């Protein structure tokens, strides 16, 4: 897999997590622990994307 393809894959996962976070937060009794964990995963994805983008220049 090329770096560009990996960045696209990670970007898709990042957007999916954003959607899942939004859905959970709009529920009447949102699970704050689950939201926090999803936000942490989303941040790790963003950091990996940024790192890969820096490599491609």
Q: Could you explain how this protein is built, in words?
A:
- With 57 residues, the chain is an all-alpha fold.
- The chain has a domain at 1-26.
- It has two helices and no strands.
- The model has no long low-confidence stretch (mean pLDDT 96).
- It holds the Pfam family DUF465.
- It comes from Brevundimonas vitisensis.
- This is DUF465 domain-containing protein.
- InterPro entries: DUF465, DUF465_sf.
Write the layout of secondary structure elements.
Layout: H1 3-26, H2 32-56
Organism: Brevundimonas vitisensis
Protein name: DUF465 domain-containing protein
Pfam family, one: DUF465
Summarize the structure.
By secondary structure, this protein is mostly helical. It has a domain of 26 residues. α1 runs antiparallel to α2.
* End-to-end CA span: 18 Å
Share of β-strand residues:
under 5%
Helix tally equals 2
Q: What is the arithmetic mean of pLDDT?
A: 96
| Low-pLDDT runs | none
Helix content: over 70%
What's the β-strand tally? 0
Largest sheet: none
The outline comes out as elongated
Structural class: mainly alpha
InterPro entries: DUF465, DUF465_sf
Protein name: DUF465 domain-containing protein
Pfam family, one: DUF465
Organism: Brevundimonas vitisensis
């Amino acid at each position: 897999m090329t770096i560009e393809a990996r960045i696209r894959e990670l970007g898709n996962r990042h957007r999916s997590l954003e959607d899942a976070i939004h859905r959970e937060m709009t529920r009447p009794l949102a699970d704050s622990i689950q939201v926090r964990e999803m936000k942490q995963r989303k941040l790790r994805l963003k950091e990996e994307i940024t790192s890969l983008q820096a490599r491609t220049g």
